[in-house]
């Protein structure tokens, strides 16, 4: 073990040399990297982007870490072979069953058309409003009225154009879950992008346009278009849900403590697989692919969250893109408005915004309101954020963090899956947010002639 650790340390320390020089230029010196790592961004300083690789790309340069990656690839190959062999033995032929994928991504042409409309409106409307306001603001005699008018139009567009219309299309046309996730996640992303674009450029207009109109204070269309695109394992997911989740929840019974406890612990494995798959597929592969196509140099989309000994550090390092947006445009702006007097309230608002948006996405995409994730965010998330804080060091706290994370994934998979199938077996006669089908659904078994992909909306 000592030789293994020493070799990993030696190879990791060598990454700052030739292996990185061949990929990025210019590079930061060791002193600059250390200063960047330990320097906390001041209240009036914006985020600094530097050319750097994703952490997993650097770790994969180490032979031992790359071998672990190869082990996961081997497991994926075995999953594929096991599925093919079992289907061939049972059916006597090669079965290629993509019903779940076809159902999940149904009505895809409507999704594409809706996304194009969303993107074009996000490209044109905010830019035109900001440019018109920036040109008229320096020479206007009614600056406050002009600002209120432009802000009101922007809020109207955010609420109706990006807020209401995509949600209405999703619900009105009864889109399946994956198609819903595409539109709703893009809706949230574009709203964050528009807010960031307006928020950053308002200060530039105020500072550069005091003595006269200066249109250069507003970026041109091309940088804004790039900003909308740049980003601050499908079969494996199919295997997780078809082989590990669906068989467990096709048979339901009345709510019972023993059944619920067993369900949570049986759901930990698929929950952990979903966690790792979501991290690697989206935060690493997807974001790095777009960063490579757009030649975006700063690939720090996540940090070493797996080494966290506190949930406070985990929240900061799991998704750096979303964390930076919440930190700069929610936390810091609230401190600026409150003159840095209510830091606890600012943290509470950050948790609330994050929890509400996450629960909104799940409620629209699943077709029912079941605030499990919201409760975990606001109750256990905030509690662990203060109990497991940054002063907690040592391996035992990392074990506690992983245990709580695994248990939370099991709770989410168990409760949301039970509610999904309860909506199929025991639909409520009257829609009510206070009644949950999974808590009142009596034992039933899915009939053979009932599709497991029944649409709920």
UniProtKB/TrEMBL annotation:
GO biological process terms, semicolon-separated: cholesterol efflux; cholesterol metabolic process
The places in or outside the cell where this protein is found are:
Endoplasmic reticulum membrane
Matches recorded under InterPro entries: MBOAT_fam, Oat_ACAT_DAG_ARE
**Residue numbers annotated as active site:** 358
Question: Which GO-annotated molecular functions does the record name?
Answer: cholesterol binding; cholesterol O-acyltransferase activity; fatty-acyl-CoA binding
Membrane topology classification: Multi-pass membrane protein
Q: Which UniProt keywords apply?
A: Acyltransferase, Disulfide bond, Endoplasmic reticulum, Membrane, Phosphoprotein, Transferase, Transmembrane, Transmembrane helix
Give the matching PANTHER family. STEROL O-ACYLTRANSFERASE, STEROL O-ACYLTRANSFERASE 1
Q: Which family does it belong to?
A: Belongs to the membrane-bound acyltransferase family. Sterol o-acyltransferase subfamily.
Q: What is this protein called?
A: O-acyltransferase
Q: What species does this protein belong to?
A: Astyanax mexicanus
Q: Lineage of the source organism?
A: Eukaryota, Metazoa, Chordata, Craniata, Vertebrata
């Amino acid at each position: 073990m000592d030789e293994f650790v020493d070799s990993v340390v030696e190879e990791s320390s060598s990454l700052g040399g030739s292996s990185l020089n061949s990929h990025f230029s210019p590079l930061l010196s060791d002193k600059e990297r250390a200063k960047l790592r330990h320097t906390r961004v001041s209240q009036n300083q914006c985020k600094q982007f530097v050319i750097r690789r994703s952490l997993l790309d650097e770790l994969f340069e180490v032979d031992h870490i790359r071998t672990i990656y190869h082990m996961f690839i081997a497991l994926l190959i075995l999953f594929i072979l096991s599925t093919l062999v079992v289907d061939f033995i049972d059916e006597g032929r090669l079965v290629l069953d993509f019903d779940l994928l076809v159902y999940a991504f149904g009505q895809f042409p409507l999704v594409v058309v809706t996304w194009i409309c969303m993107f074009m409106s996000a490209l044109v409307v905010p830019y035109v409003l900001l440019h018109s306001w920036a040109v008229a603001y320096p020479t206007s005699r009614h600056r406050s009225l002009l600002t209120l008018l432009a802000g009101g139009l922007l809020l109207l567009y955010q609420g109706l154009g990006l807020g209401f219309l995509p949600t209405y299309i999703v619900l009105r046309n009864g889109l399946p879950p994956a198609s819903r996730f595409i539109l709703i996640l893009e809706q949230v992303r574009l709203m964050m992008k528009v807010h960031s674009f307006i928020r950053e450029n308002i200060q530039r207009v105020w500072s550069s346009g005091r003595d006269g109109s200066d249109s250069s204070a507003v970026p041109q269309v091309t940088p804004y278009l790039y900003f909308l695109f740049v980003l601050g394992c499908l079969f494996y997911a199919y295997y997780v849900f078809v082989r590990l989740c669906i068989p467990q929840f096709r048979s339901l019974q009345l709510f019972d403590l023993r059944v619920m406890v067993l369900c949570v612990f049986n759901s930990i494995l698929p929950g952990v697989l979903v966690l790792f798959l979501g991290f690697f597929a989206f935060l690493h592969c997807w974001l790095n692919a777009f960063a490579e196509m757009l030649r975006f140099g700063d690939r720090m989309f996540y940090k070493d969250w797996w080494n966290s000994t506190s949930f406070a550090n985990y929240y900061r390092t799991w998704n750096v893109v979303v964390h930076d947006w919440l930190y700069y445009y929610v936390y810091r702006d609230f401190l600026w408005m409150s003159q840095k007097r209510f830091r606890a309230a600012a943290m509470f608002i950050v948790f609330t915004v994050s929890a509400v948006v996450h629960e909104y996405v799940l409620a629209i995409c699943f077709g029912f309101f079941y605030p499990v994730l919201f409760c975990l965010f606001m109750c256990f998330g905030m509690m662990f954020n203060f109990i497991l804080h940054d002063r907690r060091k040592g391996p035992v706290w990392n074990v506690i963090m992983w245990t709580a994370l695994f248990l939370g994934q099991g709770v989410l998979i168990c409760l949301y899956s039970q509610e999904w199938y309860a909506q199929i077996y025991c639909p409520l006669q009257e829609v009510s947010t206070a009644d949950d089908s999974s808590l009142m659904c009596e034992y039933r078994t899915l009939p053979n002639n009932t599709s497991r992909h029944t649409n709920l909306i």
